[in-house]
Amino acid sequence: MTMAGNKTQPTDASVEAFLAAIPDPVRREDCRRVAAMMQAATGAPPVMWGAAIVGFGCYRYTYASGRTGDWPVIGFSPRKNDLTLYLMPGFEQHADRLARLGRHKTGKSCLYLKKLADVDLAVLRDLVEWSVQAMAPQRIDTPSR
To answer: Region 88-103: what's the mean pLDDT?
Structure first.
């Protein structure tokens, strides 16, 4: 069981209802395309994590403090300003891919896109697949609830 403090947990909420409720039709379609890409890469069904993250697969992390938790192997969220993709291994070794990706920003493990039309989908798919493969040794795919 995860310890208290892990606010974002998997839920039984409908991913399809969540995606259908996205008001912007372009963002909604982009999210459906990203969901299909991530499901193909992981072989896992989409699961709502908290109120706004669609995740695929699951891995368990442990901090140096001993605190543990579960998190999606890969996921995304249609945030207000960006479509945020969560690619757990980060981007340090991907300068070449990112240079070819198109318009984006990055955080530690977040890839921020305005819309899919701004990026090369083959490069995005490559990043998604690499991220899933890099996380494979840590996958548990059944989050503790």
So the answer is: 90
